[in-house]
Amino acid sequence: MAMVAVPVVFGFLGSLLDGAVGTAVVFTILFAAFGVACSFTAAYYRYERSIAEHEAGKPWTRTREVRRLGGANR
After folding, report:
1. Alpha-carbon separation of residue 51 from 40, 57, 58, 64 (angstroms)
2. Confidence of residue 68 (pLDDT cuts 50, 70, 90)
3. CA 10: distance to chain centroid?
4. Exposure of 34 by Cβ count < 10 A (0-12 exposed, 13-18 middle, 19+ buried)?
5. What are phi and psi for residue 69, nearest 5 degrees?
6. Residue 14 neighbours by CB distance under 10 Å
7. Euclidean distance between CA atoms 4 and 13, whole angstroms
8. Does residue 43 contact residue 68 with C-beta atoms inside 8 Å?
9. Are 34 and 44 a contacting pair, CB within 8 Å?
10. CA-based angle 17:27:23, to the nearest 5?
């Protein structure tokens, strides 16, 4: 829903601004493109957060502690 609603709302606002200023469809296209970029950016960060929460505590995400015994690195 958000992937569609945000560009449509921004495009509508751009259309209103185009009508007020008297330009063709410049602001409509710019605002709609900005809405698409914002939608994809938000989806990317939601995905990254979801994956990080899902993989928290998994064996492949743990860091190893390097212990030096007696000062030797063997």
Report:
1. 16, 12, 12, 21
2. low
3. 17
4. middle
5. -100, 120
6. 22
7. 15
8. no
9. no
10. 70
Q: Could you tell me if 20 and 30 are in contact, meaning their C-beta atoms sit under 8 angstroms apart?
A: no
- pLDDT value of position 73: 55
Domain ranges of the chain: 2-55
The mean per-residue pLDDT over the stretch 22-41 comes to 93
Q: How far apart are CA 67 and CA 44, in angstroms?
A: 38
Count of beta carbons in the 10 Å neighbourhood of residue 45: 10
Query: How is 28-48 classified by DSSP, letter by letter?
Result: HHHHHHHHHHHHHHHHHHHHH
Read off the tokens for 71.
């000062």
